[in-house]
Amino acid sequence: MTSPDNEPRRQSALRGLLGAAAVQGTRKVAVSAGSAVVGAVGWPVILAVAAVLILLALVLVITAIVALSRMSDQQQNFAYQCESRLGYSVGNTAALAVVPRLATSVPFDQAPSTAWETTALQPATTTSATTTTATPTSTPTTATTSANSTSPANPYATLTPPPTADANTTACANAVRNGDVVGPPLTTPGDEIGRQAATLANNQVGLLATDADGSTAGPTNEAFSAANLVRYAYYQATGGEVTLPKDVAQQIDTGDRVDPSAISPGDLVFFNFTPTQGPTAVMIAITPTLGIDATTVNQPIAVGVLPTGNIIVKRPRTQTHQEVPTP
């Protein structure tokens, strides 16, 4: 008589044998199929197909890496353009990732007609995206000192922020529409006109600092506002050829950005940035560490230590054909 305990063991052993037989059969079928394929097409063809598949995989990986790198570069460029107008705290927190990029090199020896390859945040509703051409002019500029025959067209000019954008991204998208494309920070000393502007500003020490006094012609009521002081200094230093904007937040849109390590007499140091509206204060440098301070209202204009930290330094362009750093 067969013991009940032996029956499960026999069934388990039988299942094991059947499974092993199935695996063995599958292997034989696979080997046979493989042999048939090799016999039909040959090893050279199989190796060639494998090489093509590996190459395609590598191309896809490289393409993905390049795309991610380009997105990172675009994001960094947009943040740089924004911080050059609104300060580090705004530019470095903007969430925008899709921005314009320059499709060809920028010619410096002629009026640029470079087409920008633009991907808009959200197309402007009133104007279509266009490529503008800067033209030389012999008349004094009244809005910006940096629009000249070597400045590339601003590719952000017709961008508007999407409705879902956060406050900083919206502020950045609005800010970069104005002014020139900002190139890398200058690391070279300023010129004689900058030194003349610094001297003119230095001569106003002792006058009263107010909100609105002064003009390009000189002080009014024995006083200057900070914005009007730098307007006066550059207007007089250039013989009336350069007229900076009247508002500090607009003045930062003009000229070339300067590395803080290269501050020279005449450079404009912007600070006291608002959350989304740009700077509210400006000093004109007279040395790498000192500047003319007309920012303390109802106090005498004085020589003060230049601020550090969240500052943006700009150098107004004073030469009609001055080269613009490549963005």
UniProtKB/TrEMBL annotation:
Residues 117-169 are annotated as: Disordered. One of its GO terms (biological process) is proteolysis. The chain crosses the membrane at residues 45-68. The keyword Transmembrane applies. The keyword Cell membrane does not apply. InterPro entries: NLP_P60_dom (IPR000064), Papain-like_cys_pep_sf (IPR038765). It holds the Pfam family NLPC_P60. Residues 123-169 have a biased composition (Low complexity). Residues 218-295 form the NlpC/P60 domain. One of its GO terms (molecular function) is cysteine-type peptidase activity. Keywords: Hydrolase, Membrane, Protease, Thiol protease, Transmembrane, Transmembrane helix. Belongs to the peptidase C40 family. This is NlpC/P60 domain-containing protein.
